[in-house]
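Key idea: predict the complex, not the pieces.
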Amino acid sequence: MIKINKISKSYEKQKILNNLSFEIQKGEIIGLTGPNGAGKSTLLNILALLNMPDSGEYYINEKYVGENIDYFRSIVGYVPQEIALFDELTVLDNLLYWSKYSKKKAKLKAQEIGERLDLYDLFHKKIKKLSGGMKRRINLAVGLLNDPKILILDEPMVGIDEKHCKEIFFYLKELSQQGITQIISGHYAEQLMHIADRVLYIDEGEVQFFENVLLYTEFLLKKARSAQ
Amino acid sequence: MRMKYIFYDLKRVFESRALVIICIISPIIIMILFGSIVAPLLFTAKITKFNVAIINEDKSKEVAAFLNQMLNSKALEDLVVPYSVNSLDEGIELLESNDVLIVIHIPNNLLDSIKSKKKTYVDLYSQNGHNLEITLIKMTLNSSLSTVEKGQNLIEYSTKFFLNKGISLEELESFVTHTTNLAINEFMNRRAILSQEGTISPVGEYVPTEYYMGAIFTFFAVFAMIPLAAITSRDLKKNVLQRGFLWNKRWIAYFFARIFSGFIFISMIIVLVYPSSILSSLLNATLKMDFSTNMPALFFATILSALCYSSMALLIGSVFYKGDISTWVAFYIAIFMAVISGAIIPAVFMPDWVNLSGGLLPFRASMRSITNALFLYDRNQYLIDIYKLIAWNIIFFAGAFFSMRKRGFAK
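Result:
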C-alpha cells in the first residue's frame, strides 16, 4: 500500500530525515513515535503529501505519488495536530464545507460520522463555543469525511477524555478492518499500543524500530538499558 | 459546488453581527458628528482660508454693498480672502497660477436684472479638485441673490407705501439699504442661528457634510478591509492549509468566494450613501441648490470601490498571513491612504508632491468619484477617477490571485 524508499529531508542545512525506508500494508495501523525533534512531523507531512522529500521516493499502491499528486491527495485524509476548523461556522457547516461530496451525500456522511464520534448533539453549535476535546473530535471527523484510503493522524487523542478516546479507537479499528491504512503519531507509547499493529520509532531522522507492537516494550527496555 | 464556498464564506464574514452593525452605521454617525461639530470648526479655522478673485463689472453701490455683505457673512467671513481684479482675463490668470482658487465674475447689469425681476447670473470659475470651495461660494451666492430677489418685491411695495405717507427720498434710500443689508445678514447668519438652537439638521450644516460624505463612506469602506484581511490571513495559517484547504484548485473557489463576500460586506457599508443621496436630492429640489446627483454614476463608483477594497484586503491577507500582522498592515495602509488622499486634511493644504501621490491612490479616486456623482457631476473628472479605480482593481485582483495561487501550492 505505502512504500517509502530512502527519503531524506533537510531544513536550513539540518538533516531531519536521513535515508528513511519502510513499507506499510493495506489496512494496517502504524503507531509513529519518537523523541522530540526526531522528525515525526516532517515524516507525517511527507506521508500526507503536504511536503515533498528532498530525495527518495514515495509510492502508494505501487505508483509514484509525484505523477498525480492531486489524485493521491484526494485519497489521503489528514488530521493535523492543531485544530483546523472554521471557528465562525457550526459543526455541521464545517463538516459540509470540508466534504468533497454533493450536499445530500455530504449530509448523510456527516450524520454517519457524527453518530460514530458522538457529535450529533453538537451539530448546530459554533466551533468557537466548544471545549478543546470536542474540537479535537470534530477535527478528527473532518479527516474521515471524504472516505480516505490512507489516514494520517498527528497526535489525535490529545485533550480527549477516556470515554471518547475508547470510542475513537474502536472506530479506527473498524476502519482498519475496512482496509483503511492509518498512521497515528503520538508521544505516549501506551496509547498507541492499544490500537497500533506495528510501531515505527524514529530518532535523528532514522528508523530505530519498526516491528509488531508486542515487541515494542522489549525495544524500549533495551533502549533504557543501553542508555544506562 | 462553487456556490457552497460563497455561501459559507458569506456566513463567516457576516458571522459577527455586532461588527457588521458597527461597520454599517459608523459612517452615518461620523457624518452627523462631522457635519455638526468637526466641520464647522475646521471651516472656520484660519488655516482653511482661501483666495477668491472678484471682477465686479456692476459698479452700483448696491452691488458693492451686497458683495461686502456676502463676503463678511458668517458663512464666508472666516473662510475667504477676497481680491478685487479688473478683468476676467486677470482673474483667470490668477486662477491658473493657483494664486486664487475661485474667480467670481459679476456682470454689469446685475442690479438692473434684479430690479427688473429678470433671472440673475453670476459666473464662477475654478480648477478641478476644488469642489468644496466652489460649492460654498455658489451656495452663498445663490442664497444671497435669492434673498435679494425675494426681498425686492417687499422693498418696492414698502417704498411706495412710505412715499405716499410723505417720508423723504433720503430717508427711504437709507431704509432700503438698511433693510436689504439686514435681510442678507440675517440669511447669512442662519448657520449661527441654527447652531444656537442645537440643530444638527443637514439644512444647517450640509455644506461640509456633502463634501465629506464621499470621504467618510470611502474611509469606512477602506477600513472594512481590516476584518477581511484578518479573516483571510487566519485561513492561510498552517493548520487549515495542512488540511488541504487550497488543494486541487480549491484555492480558485476560495479566491472568488472571498472577493465576492468582501465585496458584499463593503457594499453594505457604502450602500447608505444612496439614502443620503436621496436626502440631498430632496434638499436640492426644496432649496433650489445646484446639486446634480447622478445615480448610475454613483452606483458604478460604489461597485468599483467595493471590489477594489475587497481585492486589496485579500492581497494584504494573503501576503501578510503570518501572525496577526495583516490586521496592522491593513490598518496602517487605510490610515496612510486616508491622510495622503485628503480625507482628513484637505488636499489643497498638503505639499504638491503629497497631493500628487494621493491623487494616484484608489482612496482619492473613490472619494472623488462618489462626491462627484453625488453632488457636482463633472463627467471628465468622474471618468478620470473611474479609470484609476479600474486600474487599481486590476492590480489588486491580479496580485491577490497570484498570492493565493502561491499559498495553494505545497512546498
